[in-house]
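for the recovery benchmark. tokens below, seq after
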């Protein structure tokens, strides 16, 4: 891990406020890291659960509102689009209101968005998706900066923890969607709405972070630069990290949106398709946990880029040639590759930056551009499938995305700083 960490300069009351390292020390003396870890894990569980819970139910949602394939793909594309839009404002909100307060507000907004999404209106369905995507964007963008600030010497291992929790939340949500639907009376609305309880629990767990931060300093610690810094938007390395983030997000959200449908279109039962999809999410935990730990021990992460893109490409190729016959194998290959890729992308944000300020800025850039790019994936895949009547062409296009991700990922993984 990198040594010689320079604590960030704080805002107008810098002389009266602690450094990031001093803040971590105060938290240790207060026993605060335990509460912080619980808050991080519960917040991370929510980062994909509200998205993954939709995929097994897309067919029923489309039938309920009479949606075409393209229109039903918007159920998953709209939240992903607003992952990018919300990421635009997340760094600004974090600097002006404090990461703790914004993360709490994001969890409350997420719970509200989930409930709006199940109202009996197609406008509410999409409007709730806007709220869900915006809330998750705030969580996504602020978490790397928070970890860089409070755990500067354990950034890779903490990234491993929260990406593992994020994938675990998606796994549970995907596996439970259909059983919850049956247990709650056979309606998809109850199954989707259930996940607002997870957001509420995380908000309650995060509330002490706001109260402790206010009690310690009179307000949350706000990390801002000492002087105007060179914009990350002008850095070639930042763009390489950003594009790798976006391309791996694109292939992941295509699967989140369409994997169960690909299986059912080839004759698999809906319940079995849901289980295979849940298995895919479960296997992602292994990749999401292991790859950041490995990345933190390497000066260059190029071998990891090759590994995760190859696994994803192999899994997609299997879906194209024998989707049902090799479903479990393709699901495993894709799962390890997907989890490893998202863990690697988030770790690169931390490893390619030298301080919490730059990490926050790069996180905002990577997730703004990345998720705007990724939002096109489910929509384009649904439209091409509707036009061709087959999943072959959409999958070939995703294989091209894998090649592009390899092309930008290799330079993004070199030993350098933004």
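predicted aa per position
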């Amino acid at each position: 891990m990198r040594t010689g960490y320079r604590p960030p300069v704080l805002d107008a009351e810098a002389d009266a406020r602690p450094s990031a390292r001093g803040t971590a020390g105060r938290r240790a003396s207060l026993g605060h890291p335990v509460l912080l870890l619980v808050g991080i894990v519960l917040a991370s569980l929510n980062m994909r659960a509200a998205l993954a819970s939709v995929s097994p139910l897309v067919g029923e949602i489309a039938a309920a509102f009479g949606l075409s394939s393209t229109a039903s793909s918007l159920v998953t594309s709209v939240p992903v689009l607003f992952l990018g839009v919300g990421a635009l404002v997340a760094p600004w909100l974090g600097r002006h209101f404090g990461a703790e307060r914004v993360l709490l507000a994001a969890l409350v907004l997420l719970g509200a968005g989930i409930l709006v999404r199940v109202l009996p209106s197609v406008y509410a369905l999409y409007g709730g998706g806007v709220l869900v995507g915006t809330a998750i964007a705030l969580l996504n963008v602020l978490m790397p900066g928070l970890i860089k600030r409070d755990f500067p010497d354990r950034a890779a291992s903490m990234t491993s923890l929260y990406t593992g929790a994020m994938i675990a939340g998606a796994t549970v949500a995907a596996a439970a969607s259909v059983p919850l639907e049956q247990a709650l009376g056979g309606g998809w609305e109850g199954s989707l709405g259930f996940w607002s309880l997870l957001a509420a629990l995380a908000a309650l767990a995060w509330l002490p972070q706001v109260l402790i931060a206010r009690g310690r300093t009179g307000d949350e610690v706000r990390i801002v630069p000492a002087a105007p810094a060179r914009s990350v938007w002008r850095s070639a390395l930042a763009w390489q990290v950003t594009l790798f983030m976006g391309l791996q997000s694109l292939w992941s959200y295509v699967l989140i949106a369409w994997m169960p449908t690909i299986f059912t279109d080839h004759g698999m039962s809906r319940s079995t398709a849901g289980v295979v999809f849940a298995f895919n999410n479960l296997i992602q935990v292994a990749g999401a946990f292991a790859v950041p730990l490995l990345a933190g021990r390497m000066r260059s992460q190029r071998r990891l880029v090759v590994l995760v893109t190859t696994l994803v490409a192999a899994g997609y190729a299997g879906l194209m040639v024998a989707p049902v016959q090799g479903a479990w194998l393709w699901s495993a290959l894709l799962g390890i590759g997907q989890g490893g890729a998202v863990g690697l992308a988030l770790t690169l944000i931390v490893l390619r930056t030298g301080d919490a300020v730059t990490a926050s800025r790069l996180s905002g850039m990577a997730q703004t551009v990345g998720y705007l790019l990724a939002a096109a994936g489910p929509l384009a895949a649904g439209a091409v499938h509707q036009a061709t009547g087959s999943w072959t062409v959409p999958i070939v296009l995703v294989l091209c995305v894998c090649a592009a991700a390899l092309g930008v990922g290799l330079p993004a993984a070199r030993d350098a700083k933004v």
